[in-house]
Design a protein that fits this description.
alpha/beta, binds adenosine-5'-triphosphate, globular, ATP binding, EC 7.6.2.9, ABC-type quaternary amine transporter, Rossmann fold, CBS-domain, 15 helices, about 40% helix
Length: about 375
């Protein structure tokens, strides 16, 4: 959908901001460009909507060489969200969002209708916020309007330059999660600039890690974290990349253990193979759990004694969420359910299995595992 072919940008003062860049972003893919300040991320992005012209090379959007497209026409196909959103201060939130469709010839009433839908989509109730002016919004709310406005003309491509950079970390995480949900629904082709590796990892289908004017690695978040291409990337992603991997490694069915299971209408079992059992309803959906001790002491059916299960997640949730859920509920394990059904029980994830899952996902990084073993052996040798 977006393709760079040997693109170089030299500014008039001789600065080479981007040096012989080639990469491709597939339709519906979200690629994050991450790297330290001044490495050429913004220059890369601004060349896509022709705010900056390349010195060499070609850029294609949807198969068309953009050097042959009128910049105004081109920008209609490309939504643009920046840190300083640049909302019109004298227009209401609804008018701000409706501006672009209106300019494109959509009738006023229709444009406002569409704007209200978009505000809803970015989590702003149009009945509450539609008539407010930008100064009456929080920073996070302004960014949401910025995203809604960029989507207003329904462009296939979105360019986002540190869109959540100016808000505090809590709001930022909230906006990121909302944006991920939104992206699931609209599936735009997105180039997203950030200098924050956490943000790049959380949002990107793939990450381009920039060195000076060049891409040092272009891979999925888990590969960048698990197998950095070189020392520069390893340094940039940080020594805690093992921890960061938790957030990009999903719980898979193969990671789960199968504990004893009882059903709601069963008579209380006197013996269980473990200290507890999972309680399911007639459709094998998760209902709760029961301890062996409780079952032994009680009488009647499981239904009367089952406890609610608070610690559960759908399969595919991240290991980080699993760990957080265990801590939040002070739980020794969490139940994992099917994400597409009413909550069909699949198994449980224990801390030991979580650890194994993390090792599985790191297995690609054979180089580092070998190094860790050497270090362990050395420690053992010193001790003996
Ligand atoms: N108009 C310009 N004239 C000369 N040099 C420029 C110009 N714009 C940017 N540069 C230089 O080009 C390099 C890349 O800048 P760019 O803005 O693309 O980096 P960036 O990775 O987006 O940085 P940041 O994260 O700080 O925004 C920098 O060295 C910058 O100083």
């Amino acid at each position: 959908m977006i393709r760079f072919e040997h693109v170089t940008k030299r500014y008039a003062d001789g600065t080479t901001a981007v040096d012989d860049l080639s990469f491709e972003v597939a339709e519906g893919e979200l690629v994050t460009l991450v790297g330290p300040s001044g490495c050429g991320k913004t220059t890369t992005m601004k060349m896509v909507n022709r705010l900056i012209e390349p010195s060499e090379g070609r850029i294609f959007v949807d198969g068309d060489d953009i050097s042959g497209i009128d910049p105004v026409q081109l920008r209609r196909r490309i939504g643009y969200v920046i840190q300083q959103v640049g909302l019109f201060p004298h227009k209401t939130v609804l008018e701000n969002t409706a501006t672009v469709p209106h300019l494109l010839g959509v009738k006023r009433g229709k444009a406002r209708e569409r704007a209200a839908e978009l505000l809803d989509l970015v989590g702003l109730d149009p009945a509450v916020f539609g008539d407010r002016y930008p100064e009456q919004l929080s920073g996070g709310q302004r960014q949401r309007v910025g995203v809604a406005r960029a989507l207003a003309a329904d462009p296939p491509v979105l360019l986002m330059d540190e869109p959540f950079g100016a808000v505090d970390p809590v709001v930022r995480e909230h906006l990121q999660n909302e944006f991920l949900r939104l992206q699931q629904a609209v599936r735009k082709t997105v180039l997203f600039v950030t200098h924050d590796i956490e943000e790049a990892v959380r949002l990107g289908d793939r990450i381009a890690v920039y060195g000076e004017g060049r891409i040092e690695q272009f891979d999925s978040p888990s590969t960048v974290l698990g197998a950095p291409a070189n020392d520069y990337v390893a340094d940039f992603v940080g020594a805690d990349r093992g921890l960061k991997r938790l957030s990009v490694t999903p719980i898979e069915e193969g990671d789960l253990e199968q504990p004893p299971v009882v059903h709601l209408d069963d008579t209380l079992p006197k013996e269980l193979d473990a200290r507890w059992a999972v309680v399911l309803d007639g459709g094998n959906n998760l209902h709760g759990w029961i301890s062996a001790e409780h079952a032994r002491a009680g009488s009647g059916t499981v239904r009367e004694h089952a406890r609610r299960m608070e610690a559960w997640l759908p399969v595919g949730a991240s290991l980080k969420q699993a760990f957080a859920t265990m801590l939040q509920h002070d739980a020794g394990w969490i139940a994992v359910i099917d994400k597409d059904s009413e909550g069909r029980f699949l198994g449980v994830l224990t801390p030991a299995r979580l650890h194994e899952a993390l090792r599985r996902s790191t297995a690609a990084d054979a180089r580092d595992i070998a190094r860790a073993e050497v270090e362990l052996e050395t420690v053992a040798a010193i001790r003996s």
